[in-house]
Protein: 3-hydroxyisobutyrate dehydrogenase
Organism: Pyruvatibacter mobilis
Amino acid sequence: MASIGFIGLGNMGGPMARNLLKAGHSVTVFDLSKDAAAALAEAGASVAGSAGEAASGVEIVVSMLPAGRHVEAVYGGNDGVIARAGEGTLLIDSSTIDVATARKVAAQAADAGLAMVDAPVSGGVGGAEAGTLTFMVGGDADAFAKANPILGAMGKNIFHAGGAGNGQAAKICNNMLLGISMIGTAEAFNLAEKLGLDAQTFFDISSTASGQCWSMTSYCPAPGPVPTSPANNDYKPGFAAAMMLKDLRLAQEAAALAQAPTPLGSEAASLYGLMEATGKDGVDFSGIIKMLRGDL
Ligand code: NAD
């Protein structure tokens, strides 16, 4: 069993840290929210007074923070994770952040002689609670091998995506594709309906024809065909449009730096941006179909 420092105990980090405790690891936590840390203390964690303190004297550090600037703040500086972690400590950042910052922080860790992986997740709060997250990991093979059993206590599928930053790259490329395919699926169901074609009939045809995709068969934005999809639960998330927009914006940032044309990714970001601008981004991302129908 390992000694682990865990930083960032929000909707995702809280249950992930609990699963590490359940697996028998010894966990020291830190969060700016004292309440969040206290809840983990009740579950058996020790509480540190700073991120640096949580990172000192442990074998592994895991962080689950909102965005790149929080990761830079937590890892950098005199009392930061990199300065305070001892020799041989492995750093795992599971936050979803921009590829450039992930690579920059990993390089700072390497300069200090520390191995680091970026390991963003998919699976949402439900997956974090159930310990069934998918991890997409960027970093060298040794660091990946060392991270694997720790990630295995919090997730089910663990992929090595390549070097530093490639976990973030995999995550945003996947979610950009998901955002685009959801909008396409919503447009098709909306048009079908306006042409007098019943949603279930269109689903039966298209899900076995070339229009088939995950957004249709597992998460259909039209109510009816897929009983478990948020469309049948008043578009409650699930995966909120605001979270999809965050990932689409990260993809656009990366695309600009990499000079990769992503016209549909850009359009998807604009459309989810409209949901944000109208205060409707708390609904599930499949609720974009309601915006197309003019009833959001
Ligand atoms: P959250 O806002 O619920 O939690 C973030 C936590 O980090 C908060 O408790 C906050 O107090 C803490 N924090 C912020 N700055 C800090 C600092 N400097 N030091 C210590 N603690 C600090 O967010 P979340 O939903 O848990 O998401 C975390 C990450 O996981 C994000 O990058 C998000 O994009 C990603 N993610 C979330 C989901 C989801 O469904 N919520 C799914 C996949 C990925």
Residues 7-13, 30-33, 36, 51, 64-66, 70, 73-74, 95-96, 121-122, 124-125, 243, 246 surround nicotinamide-adenine-dinucleotide (CB under 6 Å). The longest strand covers residues 155-162.
